[in-house]
UniProtKB/TrEMBL annotation:
InterPro entries: 4Fe4S_Fe-S-bd (IPR017896), 4Fe4S_Fe_S_CS (IPR017900), FTHF_cligase-like_sf (IPR024185), Helical_ferredxn (IPR009051), LUD_dom (IPR003741), LutB/LldF (IPR004452), LutB_C (IPR024569), NagB/RpiA_transferase-like (IPR037171). One of its GO terms (molecular function) is metal ion binding. GO terms for biological process: lactate metabolic process. The keyword Iron-sulfur applies. It comes from Rhodomicrobium vannielii (strain ATCC 17100 / DSM 162 / LMG 4299 / NCIMB 10020 / ATH 3.1.1). This is Iron-sulfur cluster binding protein. Keywords: 4Fe-4S, Electron transport, Iron, Iron-sulfur, Metal-binding, Repeat, Transport. It holds the Pfam family LUD_dom. Residues 324-353 form the 4Fe-4S ferredoxin-type domain. The keyword Metal-binding applies. It comes from the Bacteria.
Amino acid sequence: MSCRHRAFDCYEDSPKTVAMEQMSLHFRENAARALADPQLQRALGNVKTGFILKRAAARAALPEFDALRDEATAIKTHVIDHLDIYLEEYERRVLASGGHVHWARDAAEARDIVLAICREAGAKTVTKGKSMVSEEIGLNAALEAANIRPVETDLGEYIIQLRRETPSHIIAPAVHLNRDQIEGDFRAAHVDLPPERDLSQIVELVGEARTVLRQQFLAADVGITGANFLIAETGSSVIVTNEGNGDLTQLLPRTHIVIASLEKLVPTLEDASTILRVLARSATGQEMTSYTTFSTGPRRDDDPDGPDAYHVVLLDNGRSEMLGTEFQDMLRCIRCGACLNHCPVYAAVGGHAYGSVYPGPMGAVLTPQLTGIHDAAHLPNASTFCGRCQAVCPMHIPLPKMMRHWRERDFAAQSALATPKLAIRAWAWFARRPGFYRFATAAQGRLLSLLPRSILAKLPLGKGWTPYRVLPKPAPRPFLAQWQAREQEKLRRERPRHG
């Protein structure tokens, strides 16, 4: 078999990309690199036309969209408030259908469970439908370490797997790439691809990927998918895709593994259909995704196809700790990506800058829960608090409010000698002495107004601003002094009229 059809045997020898090696929670450094990357900035320009405008059009075409949002929010709120009941009911239904349910407290336990199932199935090759939870637990690396070859079958995930990168978006993993970059990756990985073959069009890229992935679908021993919803009423898992890869991943192999976090539950099939109506419109601007697939248990005697074994791995990994806290509303998230698409910070730096599986506003809330606020403190601060994320969220999740809660926790956890606390204490000392405060601010304004812009740009507290924007010169008099002078001038002019 040629290397073109062994792309996943060959990529281990290729060098890892910078993005993979430097993936970290150091947001400031990552963001600085992203802002200076012309290829990335060109790719991010597609987000507006690809997501924002399409969502707006889809919303406008559905008069009851806001009513559906309210109904969907109520469904998920109800489930979270009674999560224990629905989890037990879901497990009963899965077992009754012939499936198996595995409970994982954390990422390590989830990896061990999946590896045990794969070993029991004698798996050498595993195909995967897109699953952010599998990214969260680092599943691909664990499979490779166990000499099991993971093959991503979503086109975006396939591309970034060739590049040895992580997703930069939760629904469009390769949104940070341009078409010419993807063509270069295909030519490097599919080494017997004829040089004259035209890959400049999307349809050609898709066709080339399909040629390679078809053999992987047929060779896979185990198929792993995520789940957009888990239905307590029937014990079913639901996935939505636009490429049909999810169907092939769960139907062709002998074993199907579903990896999902606890909050994916909905009570009934009708509830799932309600949320589906806002999911696709919020995510990609579609009325409905091309494929919406419901799976219930393993293949039955009269089924024409399907797996012989069906396993569901339910991951906690900090979710239960969110119950009853100010972050509980985050469990309503359906991973549509609307908050990322409309976030001005994400649009400027992309997903890799966040250094987390979950970027953007939703990641700024969820990542500190998964890693701890000490390691992720910059993420809830990577926000302008413009409120667009909350405005477009189909689940009405108060993302800015929760980011403020994380900021409060970070501030409370800081040492008494931390720079922000010392700065606030200094400000408080001045604020309790109004006369001295007015004198100090007036003197500061006069001094800074006399400095040339070249020196202002080099001041320590302005360096985070001045490389990208022109720092305006301060007024020589404070606002209050200008206001008082204005009011006095108004009184002076009015006195003759009433004399």
